[in-house]
């Protein structure tokens, strides 16, 4: 797997390649057990934004080298001690600080493509909150240790994990995961519903995720995925409002070139070949308004 | 089981009967593998609205003939190809279209009576989104195939399923169900928490659901059910607001004739015989405002 | 375990003691099978509020005597028949009534300390809704019967259970639990995800909960717990808003004395000794506005 189609961008903490519609990202700062650095956050945001914009990308898949000890060892403690942006620079005010783990989480969660993570090693701190929770699908090695050291460090779970985890698995499990300091395994009852699949060997995780990714890339209309994610993340406030939203979306998609092709392929019992592109869908999507958190003037 | 008490309404795609407080609805367009047609949507909405209004109805139970291949085979493809209302008529604007699956879902979800579905065959597309998710209780045959072909057809999951599924089982499982094209079985970890019971034989599904329905009809105060459903579907925005809502409801119900009868029956260790009626509860319920989605002028 | 440090307050329905940062509360109106009385609600609210305010308290743990038949037998029927405040006094209007079970639930759910319940006997009615759902962690005896008699009594589930249960385990299970009159066991699929641990013997429940409580009290920064609970209960309305909230919180905590001590203890591989206090954290927390439900003028 090579990188020919990816524009040359200065990536130092990750490797990225594009093949068969799948943008594969591999964490690679092995010197630091794949710990989460400021530069890693920049690299990830840049590649996720590139994958969001490029119509060749159908699925974005994040993984690590299974030979590493950890998938991601959490925030890089050297940088934290130096006073990096990870916990906020001294010169930033409380209003100005933007948690890098949360910035990465936003670039994944708000992505218009399907996102998948293949966790083939241990995951500590932001290796769970930032690099697992915002994804659409999570595959993991059964032996992975999940450890959340936030309360023991006198800080708290970040990367929008308090928002995401309650929505993903309910507040009972979210509370248990975030308020207890226990070391967890993927098959723990509190965690297991987060995972699409739990694989016995480290080496099996990426192939399982890749095979799943290929099926999605080959069979699902990209704009349909974008709309479905939009409705899952921004449903109507009431069932009536959601009915108005999905009625409009289904009318729009049913009359689209994709809708025509999907029906034809179904009748002819062949694979569909969808012509519509995510970047071309600009008239209605997104139908919600987001706050621009990167404006320094955006305050609580 | 016969239909003597049900008003003569022109039902062609379903059969309905009323006995012991249970309105039993059976899908019956076997010519089309119980596929979801425009007429079926009209029939279902009519009967669910009738069941909502008639005080003799305590529980509404939907099922199909277990000898059919499918409980419901999803949207009728002949109608879709003809350009029926199912995906939106050509002459309708995006603002005017109202998804028929969503219209059915609203008539079930907003029903003031307990609703139960007994899925005794395969369920594809709207046979899952429209005819399972909006119910209070779901019983299913273990061998049922659940298949969601939306993304493969270039459209998207409809019938308010993006709203309902996230609320019912959390966003992690909802995303997995709606974004993957996999064929699922009821015992799949993503689906299983949706079901009250999963029965090994097709023929066992309706009897299990009926027995459950009879217990509810015989022991639960209808107005108490209506209030509980109202609070589950329209909880306070905060715990404080919910406390104000359920304090008012409990004061109201405790002082009602039902409350008096419930207490007496409890002390006398006999079955209660509740006098209050849902149609008679007009002064406070509903305590929320809904948008009238059937007004053509109601827009996003 | 004795009560030396607890201020003398007139508790008749519960016993309370403080040791190693754990405020242990034991229900004790054995004459009435630990039924939920008006006085019990006053006692519980008083002690939970005291535990919220006193910085020596890290964890609040509620239990009962395992030799009792029930952990809590629900609303005291004698008081209900007399027309006590439990279902609303005759002289109160619908707007004025405040459900005592809900008042207790608010004092637990809004508590800034970790709350744990050890259910070592049967739990009926408010013994489930008021005395289990609002806690952060629930431990229970496998043989406990959970029975919700509300609909059979012509009333409805109270104590903000319609709000809490949907959030805790999703609306599918919440509906099933609250709308069916079935007797449930903790290992029922609808209930099991509510519990941190299910113990085979009554006598094992409190020790398991205490051991868990001690670990939290010894290792977690109290203010970090308060912030994490705040974010779980009051997340941003959107992921962007939550990112602004937890960015501010992490900057604040990272720069705090606790943050400094947490990092030092981590580097020195020793247990942390956090100096910051919950009562001292007054400038930002709480960041949300709550309605004062105790004001008689607060209406829906």
TrEMBL record, chains A, B, C:
It holds the Pfam family ECH_1. It comes from the Eukaryota. Transmembrane segments: none annotated. InterPro entries: ClpP/crotonase-like_dom_sf (IPR029045), ECH/Chromodomain_protein (IPR051053), Enoyl-CoA_hydra/iso (IPR001753). PANTHER family: ENOYL-COA HYDRATASE_ISOMERASE FAMILY PROTEIN (AFU_ORTHOLOGUE AFUA_1G01890), PTHR43684. Belongs to the enoyl-CoA hydratase/isomerase family. This is Uncharacterized protein. It comes from Collybiopsis confluens.
